[in-house]
């Protein structure tokens, strides 16, 4: 597990190279007033805008499951990474002094909920950490550490090709990472999760899974600021998972009369839809932010976002220059 300083880059150091052309404001956004082109930030201050780029990400979806917010670790912010690291270290330190075999087994059991890309990568990184660092510092405990991935659906990585799913499961098997599929978490406590497991015959069995550290990577939810923005333009009324955008990554809204001139200026530029070579995600190419052929959202992976950022930047820079 990396130190946080290895994962962050001070924004002011980057902006200092722009010689004052960019202003950085550290603040929390409380509301976006689309009609008046104003962003409300903390302390009741306002920032007006002509063009607004919304890229604040999502928050964790806990689906109202009791105990998840209180006892699980998440994977959204820098503080989340610090907390996971500290909890893992604490569990290992406590386990090194533990005399009770049951408690020893629990403290060395790391459970990751969510079989998407985030959960898969987290479970794999944990296994690497235990195999390398823990084996070196706590050689007597390294063979007792256990990592389990919990997924509510019959398969992990449901949005990926079958071959990749099978490859992932085979690698997890080789690395001794357990996968509990068809397992829905119903409640979380400080020491275990309560889950309903669908059996091959369709019956439901309740099981308790003890853990030392619980990491929740089971889905994303829209942040309140974005949810409020979605309620403003009527074009967003049908949206449930986030802001609706077109193939240019522009939010779908009807421009008011005061913004017709800017809209005409926008269309004077030679802007093409976001696209890359290829047809569908199944062919491992990114057609554009929304897969038009299948109407499915592309997975929220860094490689998808990187493609969108490069293409989006190439289109917005000419607008800013004018």
UniProtKB/TrEMBL annotation:
Documented EC number(s): 1.6.5.9
Span of domain FAD/NAD(P)-binding: 17-253
Keyword terms of this UniProt record: FAD, Flavoprotein, NAD, Oxidoreductase
InterPro entries named in the record: FAD/NAD-bd_sf (IPR036188), FAD/NAD-binding_dom (IPR023753), NDH-2 (IPR045024)
Enzyme class: oxidoreductase
Keyword NAD part of the UniProt annotation: yes
Reactions it catalyzes: a quinone + NADH + H(+) = a quinol + NAD(+); a ubiquinone + NADH + H(+) = a ubiquinol + NAD(+)
Keyword presence, Flavoprotein: yes
Family: Belongs to the NADH dehydrogenase family.
Protein known as: NADH:ubiquinone reductase (non-electrogenic)
Organism for this UniProt entry: Aspergillus niger
Lineage: Eukaryota, Fungi, Dikarya, Ascomycota, Pezizomycotina
């Amino acid at each position: 597990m990396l130190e946080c300083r290895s994962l962050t880059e001070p924004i002011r150091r980057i902006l200092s190279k722009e010689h004052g052309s960019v202003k950085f404001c550290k603040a929390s956004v409380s509301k976006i007033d689309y009609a008046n082109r104003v962003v409300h930030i903390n302390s009741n201050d306002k920032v007006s805008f002509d063009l607004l780029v919304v890229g604040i990400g999502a928050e964790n979806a806990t689906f109202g499951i009791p105990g998840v917010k209180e006892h699980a670790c998440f994977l959204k912010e820098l503080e989340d990474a610090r907390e996971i690291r500290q909890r893992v270290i604490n569990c290992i330190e406590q386990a090194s002094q533990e005399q009770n075999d049951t408690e020893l087994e629990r403290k060395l059991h790391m459970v990751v909920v969510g079989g998407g890309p985030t959960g898969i990568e987290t479970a794999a990184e944990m296994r690497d950490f235990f195999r390398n660092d823990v084996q070196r510092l706590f050689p007597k405990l390294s063979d007792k550490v256990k990592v389990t991935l919990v997924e509510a659906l019959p398969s992990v990585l449901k949005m990926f090709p079958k071959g990749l799913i099978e490859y992932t499961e085979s690698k997890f098997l080789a690395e001794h990472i357990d996968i509990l599929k068809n397992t829905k978490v119903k409640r979380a406590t400080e020491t275990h999760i309560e889950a309903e497991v669908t059996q091959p015959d369709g019956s439901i069995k309740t099981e308790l899974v003890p853990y030392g550290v619980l990491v929740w990577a089971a889905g994303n939810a829209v942040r309140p600021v974005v949810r409020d923005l979605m309620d403003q333009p009527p074009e967003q009324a049908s949206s449930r998972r986030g802001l609706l955008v077109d193939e240019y990554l522009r939010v779908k809204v009807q421009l008011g009369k005061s913004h017709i001139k800017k809209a005409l200026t926008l269309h004077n530029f030679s802007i093409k839809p976001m696209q890359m070579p290829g047809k569908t995600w199944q062919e491992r190419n990114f057609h554009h932010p929304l897969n038009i052929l299948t109407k499915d959202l592309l997975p929220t992976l860094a490689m998808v976002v990187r493609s969108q950022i490069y293409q989006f930047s190439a289109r917005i820079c000419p607008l800013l220059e004018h």
